[in-house]
């Protein structure tokens, strides 16, 4: 009887990581929608970044205090320099991402975000953090998957095609022309954002090697991004109303982004990585494209074009090709560890690969 009672419990425990990742993807899609709503109601990218990161900072400070009240790791000046560097890169990532969402649809944003693993692979090879062997089938698959992902993103950006899903059939020719112009701008900004996010991931891997305290890193990261956003916003924003949070269409997205943008997503991802590994987490990323498309069409009035469908499919194929190569690489690393023959080159490569998905793409 005891074993029968434990069986449903074990099934529930096995199902929790899957449920967690679906919830995480919904939270990430919600962040895209929240950004879109706030920008549509007159809030600038800089003020939105300031308010959301300030909220994250205010939530994380007491949590960090309670966690490290008895003993806290030393904070050397080199650590603070690393945190500031991450803050600068993260600021660029957030601003580029928010601007891209402002110009493009939420579905295009979700599709292009799948470029991050491929761009991370390119930067890792350039910085010699990952070995590039043209004769290796794993390297060939990852390289070709990266190129396919980029081709898919370019397709979704440069080619709209006919509308497949729309909430209204009364779009004028002027609106369609304006959408075509802003579509390319938004897609270009999002691709640059993905490249910057890949740089953030690699920089984060370097910093966490020297100071492996993610919670403290997140506190300083949110603080520096909030400060940079405030400075730029004070210089660029002449309208005092752009700082106003009296409208629910501004206040609710800011609160949502402050909690679900950094804290919630990082917590869920870290837990799922611990339970199932980084590859399991990565496999759920394309799910966000489907959820975002549905929410964008139903609630935001976005139009879903044929170009977005074709580009998204190509990007997802490239994404899974890169992840297949990484899965084979992780398997080889585990086999080497079990045999006790792990090479020094593998040791240098592993931390980057393992940290690739500990940061949600859009919370950077």
UniProtKB/TrEMBL annotation:
The keyword Cell inner membrane does not apply. The keyword Secreted does not apply. GO terms for cellular component: membrane. The chain crosses the membrane at residues 15-39, 45-68, 80-101, 107-129, 141-161, 181-203, 215-235, 255-273, 280-299, 305-324. Keywords: Membrane, Transmembrane, Transmembrane helix. It is a multi-pass membrane protein. GO terms for molecular function: transmembrane transporter activity. It is found in: Membrane. Residues 32-138 form the EamA domain. SUPFAM superfamilies: Multidrug resistance efflux transporter EmrE. PANTHER family: WAT1-RELATED PROTEIN (PTHR31218). Belongs to the drug/metabolite transporter (DMT) superfamily. Plant drug/metabolite exporter (P-DME) (TC 2.A.7.4) family. This is WAT1-related protein.
